[in-house]
């Protein structure tokens, strides 16, 4: 899974690597979402909260890419 487009051609800047154990990937995603939550709370509570928006956005993109890749690796028969 690739994420974070940049440049005039909107090329993907990052990617999630294959063959990472699902449990470890999900633990990492959990950490990303934890810190995203912290940044978003700061953004909501502080006068200058806008400065937290972009870091939170990128952390969410990273976490989503991990979750998407893990879910894409689960066979359809196990999702039902």
- Series of H and E elements: EEHHH
Please report which band the strand proportion falls in: under 5%, 5-15%, 15-25%, 25-35%, 35-45% or over 45%.
5-15%
E-strand count: 2
Rg on CA atoms, Å = 15 Å
Shape by Cα distribution:
globular
Question: With helices defined by DSSP (H or I, 4 residues minimum), what is the helix count?
Answer: 3
Strand count, sense and closure of the main sheet? 2 strands, antiparallel
- Amino- and carboxy-terminal Cα gap: 23 Å
Average residue pLDDT: 87
Biggest β-sheet: strands ordered side by side in the sheet? 1-2
User: From the helix content, strand content and strand pairing, which structural class follows?
Assistant: alpha+beta
How many domains, in number, for the residues? 1
* Helix share bin: 55-70%
Provide the low-confidence segments as ranges: none
